[in-house]
Amino acid sequence: MKNIKAILHGANVEQVTRKNMGAWKSFFTLSKKKKEGELPNWMKPKPPHKKKDDLFLLIKNDRYKIEGNEIYLLDFNLRLKFNGKLKWVGKGNP
Questions:
Q1: 6 φ/ψ angles, rounded to the nearest 5 degrees
Q2: Is 61 part of any domain?
Q3: Does some domain include residue 67?
Q4: Which of 7-16, 27-36, 52-61 tops mean pLDDT?
Q5: What is the dihedral of CA 67, 16, 22, 45, to 10 degrees?
Q6: I need a labelling partner for 7 at 20 to 30 A (CA). Which of 13, 43, 74, 84 fits?
């Protein structure tokens, strides 16, 4: 598989940073609650980590186009083929 190098634009970096900060904040909050005995015994908070086989791509709804079975990333001038259904989270443009 070829490595794709791209320059991340400010909005993309900001979104990834927010997502990362949210994951760590959640971990520390849950860890504190576990120490204080506020969580059930079966719940064991784990720090966020990169999943080896999963690709997670966060893109603002105005920075891509769907064309058939391809997603076109405007910021990178890049087309990616996909199989199956896309999973949408959040609201689109009104």
A1: -145, 150
A2: yes
A3: yes
A4: 27-36
A5: 90
A6: 84
